[in-house]
Specification:
Layout lengths: L1 E4 L5 E6 L8 E4 L4 E4 L4 H4 L1 E5 L5 E6 L4 E7 L1 H10 L7 E7 L10 H10 L3 E5 L11 H17 L4 E5 L15 H18 L1 E3 L18 H12 L5
Parallel strand pairs: 7-8, 7-9, 9-10, 10-11
Antiparallel strand pairs: 1-2, 2-6, 3-4, 4-5, 5-6
Length: about 230
C-alpha cells in the first residue's frame, strides 16, 4: 500500500486488486465509480476509483463523514432532481436552490439555512443570472467575493464557484445580446479562475442544453454532476 495524497479529503492510496476481495467491491455503472461494501465503519468512509495503472485502483479514505452543500439557482434545483439529491460522495449532501436567484437577490432564509447546516464544503452556481444589458462583471465578481467572505466568517472554509456557462436565450434579460453575455461571462470566469476556487463545467452548446437553451439536458446534467464532484477527489 502506497500513500499518494493527504489533505482535507483524507488519505489516498494506490492498491492492487488482489488486496481486496471481490465481494467487497461494487461498481456503479451509472456514475462509473467504485465503492467499498462491508459492515464495519471503515467501509463507510472509503471510496474506490479506477487507477491509470494496470490492475490497480485508487482508494480514498475519509477520516470522518463530511457535510457538503450545493447552493444556487435553477441549475442546482435541476441537478438535485437529476441525481435524486445524491452526489455519490462519502458524506451527507444538501441542495439549496432557488430558480432565478442572483448574487444580489439571495433569500435571507436560504442563506441562513445554508449557514445553519454548517457544511465542510459548499459549491455555488448562481452567477449566470446576474448578467444583464447594464451589468458590470467587476460588480458581479465583487458580490461573489463578498459572499465567500461572509461564508468564511460563518465558519465555512471550503467554498467553490462554478464557471458561468453559455446560454442562447435572453428573453428574461431585456436588451441583453449574446455578444454582451459572452463578453461579460468570460471576464467574470477569468476573475473566478484567478481569485477564487473555480470549477469548470465542460458542457457543449447547444448539444448539452434543453430546449430553452439555458438549462442542461440529461447529457449536460451528467457533465455538471461529474464536474461538481471533482473537488471531492482532487
Amino acid at each position: 500500500m502506497v500513500s499518494l495524497v493527504t489533505g482535507f479529503f483524507g488519505l489516498i492510496f494506490c492498491l492492487n486488486f488482489d488486496t481486496v476481495s471481490e465481494d467487497r467491491i461494487k461498481m456503479s455503472k451509472e456514475f462509473q465509480n467504485f465503492t467499498v461494501l462491508g459492515r464495519n465503519d471503515f467501509s463507510n468512509n472509503v471510496i474506490l476509483l479506477p487507477s491509470p495503472y494496470k490492475e490497480t485502483f485508487i482508494l480514498i479514505y475519509y477520516p470522518a463523514m463530511a457535510k457538503f452543500a450545493v447552493f444556487g439557482s435553477s441549475y442546482v434545483t435541476r441537478l438535485e432532481r437529476y441525481c435524486h439529491g445524491d452526489l455519490k460522495v462519502p458524506g451527507t449532501v444538501r441542495f439549496f436552490g432557488k430558480g432565478g436567484m442572483r448574487s444580489d437577490s439571495i433569500p435571507r432564509q436560504l442563506l441562513r439555512d445554508l449557514i445553519e447546516y454548517n457544511p465542510d464544503v459548499v459549491l455555488i452556481q448562481l452567477e449566470g443570472n446576474d448578467i444583464s444589458a447594464t451589468s458590470s462583471p467587476n460588480d458581479i465578481f465583487q458580490r461573489l467575493l463578498t459572499l465567500q467572505v461572509d461564508l468564511h466568517h460563518a465558519g465555512i472554509q471550503e467554498v467553490y464557484f462554478t464557471e458561468i456557462v453559455r446560454r442562447g436565450n435572453f428573453d428574461k434579460s431585456p436588451g441583453l445580446t449574446a455578444t454582451s453575455f459572452e463578453k461579460q461571462r468570460k471576464k467574470i470566469n477569468r476573475l473566478l479562475l484567478t481569485r477564487l476556487r473555480y470549477i469548470k463545467i465542460r458542457v457543449n452548446f447547444p448539444e448539452d442544453y434543453d430546449r430553452d437553451q439555458v438549462h442542461f439536458n440529461d447529457s449536460g446534467l451528467r457533465t455538471q454532476f461529474h464536474a461538481l464532484r471533482r473537488p471531492f477527489f482532487a
